[in-house]
Amino acid sequence: MNTYLRCLWIAGLLAVVGCEPNTGGFDYAPVSGTVTVNGRPLEGATVAFAPQGESLNTGRPSLAQTDADGHFQLQTVNGIDGAVIGRHLVAITTKRLDPETQDVVARETIPVRYNAQSELSFDVPKEGSTSANFDLTLK
Predict the structure, then answer these.
(1) Do you know which InterPro entries this protein is assigned to (predicted)?
(2) How would you write the chain as a 3-class SS string?
């Protein structure tokens, strides 16, 4: 392999390694699931998983948007698929804010016990989960 090709190969390898998202020393696992309200899929909701723990630094939260079937796949804001392994506080909201003005563009349609005062939690196992399912009720 000539010097030019060797340098090009090394530069490509470094670029790929440099593009890896920073995990902050935490282990992540893939998480997906479905959100329903009274048994019906909830489309367009934001699902947020916030890691819980003893220390102040528990890892980055993970977010997802539900599709027409209520299905979601979590990802951190810096592009890591999944969520930190361990216990999470879960919030689900339909409220939308305009990113520039912070005006409400879609109001909350589900009870505060699922978002601002969430009672939901989920334990992310090492192997991940495809069954992070939440059936909300409007009672």
Answers:
(1) CarboxyPept-like_regulatory
(2) CCHHHHHHHHHHHHHHHHCCCCCCCCCEECEEEEEEECCEECCCCEEEEEECCCCCCCCCCEEEECCCCCEEECEECCCCECEECEEEEEEEECCEECCCCCCEEECCCCCHHHCCCCCEEEEECCCCECCCCEEECCC
Count other Cβ atoms within 10 Å, centred on residue 25: 7
Record: fold of 27-136: Immunoglobulin-like (2.60.40)
Query: Any idea where the domains of the chain sit in the sequence?
Result: 27-136
* Banded model confidence at residue 10, pLDDT cuts 50, 70, 90: very low
Beta bridge partners of 124: 86
